[in-house]
Amino acid sequence: MNCDVREFGARGDGLSSATAAIQHAIDRCHESGGGAVRVPPGCFRIGTLELRSGVMLELEPGAALLASEDPGDYRKSFPEQDSLVTGIYDGPFNRDQRLIFAKGAKRCGICGHGVIDANGGAFYRRDAFRVSPNKWKPEGREYLLKAWRPGPAIGMLDSEGVVLEDFTLLDAPMFGVELLHCRDVRISGLEISSDFRFHNSDGINVKASQDVSITCCRIASEDDAVCFYSDRKPMPGLEDSVNPDWSCSRITVEKCRLRSACSAVRIGYMGDEPIRDLSFRDLTVAAAQTVVDVLCCGGESPCCVPGARYAGPRIEEARFSGIRANDVKWGITVNAHSSLGATGSVGDFRFERMAIRSVYGNYLSGTAAHPVTGMRFRECAFHVAGGPVSSPQLPEQLPLFKSMTFGFGWLVRHARDIRFEDCQLHTPENFAPVIMEHCGGISGIPC
């Protein structure tokens, strides 16, 4: 079945709500065996929409879905859980109440050359700011949040055969695209843009998902442009999932242009399941706080499963090639934290043909119990311009986030089996080119 949302009463006047009409079209298309639900040119104001199996939402050129400002127009994807965490980041962190989502669906998605405007500015006090010490933002400031904001703009949950293709996503007040425990996902040709003064506005956030390809996208996001996490199971609302794999694995990102006030590529944080088999090729990083940031830690975070404590993920088998980065604060940073438990580790990474021009340097930082292992760098060029140093002494444990600056080109600490081949490093005179502490099996490091 193919249908036009106007046939179900949707009006593209930008004023009247089209939520019920578009949802009716999606439901009818699903009940009829699947097909396309077309959104024609016009501005259609919506609250939460749920995609169904077999349904592709097609946004024609000139079509715009405009997110409502009314909290009453949003509903929970997981009604049984408390989705709103208050007090975090001086404002609400909403894990749910998405604008568009699919849950337990197959062969569905969004395509076309239209626009989804998540209307993020409506949920921030744009006349009031705070200083953001952990991110690289215009004038170091970000807006204060109002009392409520929606969760991720687009959430694909426990679904498979997902396609997100060619549309533009603007100003997500929280995550832009979220994949949560999905399989077989193709994301291609997306234009994602958010105001760098928002909070938690990741471009594409991938958690506990497998067989994901992200190609030919242009992402300018306040938080991480593309990020990859794992979480422990069972996850509230997904206890009955038929997919037993909770790893984040078999991921490909290629031919994308990335900008971020945080990390262009973020791998890991908390979680107990593996993050493995990742490939990043031919990426351009136009601006970022960090080009590649790998975090491996344990403990408890209100951003993850409520009340859960994590031993830490095993992060392994990551490949990077053909990445160019300019106007970035840090280059490659890998931090295996002292909070890790038995499962946590970082190792077996390959970096080839990297060209990074950054203000500050690069580091591989592990612990005595959890050293960073098996890193290879080939034909990489690192140019460190140098900037003000906030801490002339290196702390025993580097901070997880970038609230401090240090004066080195490369720090290799608590690391084993690290090899550099045909690599170049430039640092200013007042920066130490290389610092090595508690290492073994290091060869070819540039200086």
Report on this model:
The chain is mainly beta. The chain has one helix spanning 19-31, and strands at residues 2-4, 13-17, 35-39, 42-46, 49-51, 55-59, 63-67, 84-88, 91-94, 100-103, 106-112, 115-117, 124-131, 141-145, 154-157, 160-165, 168-170, 177-180, 183-188, 191-193, 204-207, 210-215, 218-221, 226-229, 248-254, 257-260, 263-267, 275-296, 299-300, 309-310, 314-336, 345-358, 362-365, 372-378, 381-384, 408-421, 424-426, 432-443. The strands form 4 sheets. Strands 31-32-34-36-33 form a 5-stranded parallel beta barrel. Strands 8-9 form a two-stranded antiparallel ribbon. Strands 13-14 form a two-stranded antiparallel sheet. The radius of gyration is 22 Å and the shape is globular.
Question: What is shown here, in short?
Answer:
Helix content is 3%, strand content 52%. The protein has 447 residues and is mostly beta strands.
Which labels suit this protein?
five-stranded parallel beta barrel, 1 helix, 447 residues, Pectate Lyase C-like, two-stranded antiparallel ribbon, 3% helix, single chain, mainly beta
Radius of gyration: 22 Å
Structural class: mainly beta
- Percentage of helical residues? under 10%
Could you please say which CATH topology applies here?
A: Pectate Lyase C-like
The number of distinct structural domains comes to 1
User: Can you tell me the residue ranges where pLDDT is under 50 for at least 5 consecutive residues?
Assistant: none
CATH superfamily: Single-stranded right-handed beta-helix, Pectin lyase-like
Number of strands: 38
Distance between the termini: 63 Å
Q: Write down the overall geometry.
A: globular
- What's the quaternary structure here? single chain
Number of helices: 1
The largest sheet is: 5 strands, parallel, barrel
